[in-house]
Structures are given as C-alpha cells and as structure tokens.
Amino acid sequence: MILPIYLYGQPVLKKVAKDITKDYPNLKEFIDNMFETMYNADGIGLAAPQVGHDIRLFVIDLEPLAEDEPKYSGFKKVFINPQIVEESGEPVKMEEGCLSIPGINEMVERKEKIRIQYFDENFVSHNEVYDAFFARCIQHEYDHIEGKLFVDHISGIRKQLIKGKLTNLIKGKTNCRYKVKPVQSKN
Q: pLDDT tens for residues 163-174?
C-alpha cells in the first residue's frame, strides 16, 4: 500500500524516533509499504517518520542508480534501531534532496565514512562500515530518525533564500506527483 509522505513542517519529522522490538505490529507489512511508497515517489531512501511513524526504521534501495553505477546493484537494505557509532574522513559536500521537501535541493556537508550498528528486517544484528555515497544515503535517512532534515545542515543564508519554498510546503502548496500529507491542506 502506498502511504502518504509527510511534508516539511509535519511535527513527526522533528521528533527523535523510538526503538522498536521484533514484535512491532505488522512490521513486515509496514516495511513492504515503505518500499512501495519509496518506489512510487522515485526515491532511493525513506524513513518511518516520513510516513508518520516515529520509530527508528528506514529503508534504502540504490538499485535504480545501478545502470549508471554498477556498484549500487543489489544494495537494498532495511535499518531497524540503527546507531551511527562513528563518523570519519574528510567532510564532503554534495547536493541532496528529500521526498519530504520536494523541489528543493541543497549542498550538504557530511563525513565520508561511517560505522553503523542496526538490525535488519529479521532482527539480525549488523555492524558495518560504509563510505562515499552509501554513507551519505545512510546519514541522510538516519537524520530523519534523529528529528533532523537535510535543510538543518545548510547555512542560515541558504535557509533564508529557500524560506518561501519551505513556507509553501507547510501551506500545502506543492505539485508532487506522489501522495503527500502537508501540514495544512490546499485552499
């Protein structure tokens, strides 16, 4: 089932999410719905808060990028109760966008390498190291479960420049081709 994606301004996007247990109600179905919702919106990552659930869970599938970058082939993962335990390397700036902030892309600086501990969809524990674009995608989705958005990483000046666009998202003024849940409905 395709879920509505919560847009900028929704309170759940600013909450620190809670850990879950393996008996979380309808977990498999929820994960399947998250992937379906993400694919429908042409995304490569989606966190539970983006669909209104304040739980520590996100999904990533980089397969859509594999045609241009074969190294992304087969990278489809579920991260439950993740904790980034280490960030290292040089900070790297790269343009990011977000399904919860459609139509806005900004340069975001992130560390090039991370170590993350998490459970997969079968509650098998993992402790892995990622770098480059893999690390960036994980950090972006991880921010969502920490109550942060990529625009929280940009300068005050850049934020002022996009303030009108962010206000329009809060007001529900957006032309998304996917199902969304704005803070206020369109007039």
A: 999 999 999 888
